[in-house]
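User:
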Amino acid sequence: MNISPIDCTVIIPNWNGEKWLPLCLDALQQQQYQNFRTLVVDNGSKDRSRILLQTTYPWVESILLPYNQGFASAVNIGIRAAHTKYIVLLNNDTIPSTGWLFNLHNIIRLASPDIGSLASCMVMMDNPLLIDDAGDTLTWFGSAIKRGHGCPITEYSQPVEVFSACAGAALYRRSALLETDLFDEKFESYLEDVDLGLRLRIAGYRCLYVPNAVIMHKGHGSGIHKKTYIIHMTRNRLLLFLKNIPFSLLVRNALILITGQIWYIAVYHSFFASLIGYYLFIGMLPSVILEHRMLIKKRHLSIKQIQSLITIKNPNKT
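Assistant: Predicted structure:
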């Protein structure tokens, strides 16, 4: 009997996820499609995650980092260690349905080469009849919006092209990731998947939403302090736009971008944390401007096409 070579690696970044890992890993063992590797990149966990991996899940490959390097760095380490055609990123606080990976794999193997990523149908773990994320949308306010969040799953039952995939449950062509330089480790955590999605789109790749690739997601299962969240989001929101968007478009959309910044300062109710985020961003300006110049030279889309990727919509997600 011919056995197909393993062409897929499921990478799970983990930080103090002892509570969630068993649910996620047990569900992976029950997948209809089994021709994949599982790699957990542990980000310096202080709980019993590592003991759990060694004693209960010896079939899981693991990379043990000495300290928390952030989501982007951990995932990049996993991608570099994986040599499969497809990379699947999975949060530890998820429970995939049995057909989840089969349905993703079935789409990507038949898709045209310009399909660089696939978005799962992420539903709320506390209410699986409601959508958590059906692909991400980026707005000129600086909002990364979860498409369909809180809506009935029945309203998102059709495959459709979306802006980008949430990296909590997404499949990528490894070649596309390497072409676009993987995740930007300056982001550490938050918006790094939107940044990657934007770079993939500007490089000419598209993203498809796969409605039958259903997966439950808890959200913030490995939580982070609110102050740190605000700092990262404030800094990363600015990095996302300045690094990737042509200056002419930044000028054209300056008013709405500034309005978005003011809106976020108000909704976060933590001016000091926002101020730290702006301060950190200013310190990164020289390197970001240099990176901007290099990335703009690689773009495959016109100014008009880039403008149309990003929607004009009042922010409703933080």
